[in-house]
Amino acid sequence: DAAEKGGYEHYMRKEIHEQPEALRQTLAGRLDVDAGNVDLDVSFPPGFLADLEEIRIVACGTSYYAGRYAAQLFEELAGVRASVEIASEYEFGAGRTPDRTLVVAVTQSGETADTLGAIRRAKDAGARTFAVTNTLGSTVTREVDGTAFIRAGPEIGVAATKTFASQVATLAMLAVAVGRDRGALAASDARSVLEDLQGLPGAVQQVLDEEPQVREAAQAYQDSEAFFFVGRALGVPVALEGALKLKEISYDHAEGFAAGELKHGPLALVTPDTPVLAVLTDRSRGRETMNNVTEAQTRGAPALGCVSEDTEYDTLDVSFDVPDVGTVEPLVANVYLQLFAYHVANEKGRSIDKPRNLAKSVTVE
Ligand code: AGP
């Protein structure tokens, strides 16, 4: 066991640190940056993508947040309406055209019963189905019309970390591929997204190198009553994922919100004992989010922010630098939140790789 953890005390920390390599594998041989093209080795019937009306993503937990990130990319890059649904809540729904809908299951394990159930309901309605998964030969791959593998390597810790990053990177490539096929994305715009993706492993490594700073922040705030995570646009799924990670492994109360929603209710919960962790990257409308963070600070809450490296917010109690990698900048910010969750849980001596009451793969509905 100790040998398998490669010198790390927990699989989770090992897997957080494996992210640059996992991302390199995810991207390997799939990008033609000069041409602005992606080769995911997937095919669709002729004309299917051109006529596509909607992409519906179905997933659970962390994979659902990867889906929320991706839906924004599909709309922006592929010019197609995209929505995300919690798999256990998914129904095909009225007013939709099955043969012009692509239902995409995002599932690390490929075995999550809720997600398989959603795919079966989509198939019954006549929709085309697709899976984004880490697991070769998993049940989902046998049920869908096409699959893209995220190639993150085995993930042992119950908390999903490197697979979230690789899922988002794979879905970003899929969004570029669909956008190019539909003629919705110019080669020059595709090129710039692909360059951002190429920069992702290095940017994540830069964040990992800041781990001592994150550990210090975790030690300073670990005994807080609750933790609130906020963001805007691509920062929202990252905030939600940050909160899930912290609650899952530390057992502390943590909630994620769209930053603009703070003033519509959650602000009543804010006290000097509830730190706010914010995704303040330029690509997630950091400046507007900072205004909401200031409202929480006025009520005494400490504020920690993941900030684009060329931006500064002097009033933050803690500021983490995020390298500028465009569309995937908020994904890089997420690595700080993973490390924060890990160190809070570690300080408390929690069972990090196997949190109470949870299973890696949830095979019951
Ligand atoms: C994430 O840390 C959780 N362990 C959990 O939310 C997980 O992402 C969810 O159960 C979905 O699993 P899947 O990706 O294998 O379908």
TrEMBL record:
Cleavable signal peptide: none
An annotated GO cellular component: cytoplasm
Compartment(s): Cytoplasm
Record-listed E.C. numbers: 2.6.1.16
GO MF, one annotated term: carbohydrate derivative binding
Domain SIS: 44-184, 217-355
Keywords for the protein's UniProt record, in alphabetical order: Aminotransferase, Cytoplasm, Glutamine amidotransferase, Repeat, Transferase
GO biological process: carbohydrate metabolic process; fructose 6-phosphate metabolic process; protein N-linked glycosylation; UDP-N-acetylglucosamine metabolic process
Active site: 360 (for fru-6p isomerization activity)
EC class name: transferase
Top-rank taxon: Archaea
Annotated coiled-coil segments of the chain: none
Reactions accelerated catalytically: D-fructose 6-phosphate + L-glutamine = D-glucosamine 6-phosphate + L-glutamate
Record text on subunit structure and interactions: Homodimer.
Main function: Catalyzes the first step in hexosamine metabolism, converting fructose-6P into glucosamine-6P using glutamine as a nitrogen source.
Name of this chain's protein: Glutamine--fructose-6-phosphate aminotransferase [isomerizing]
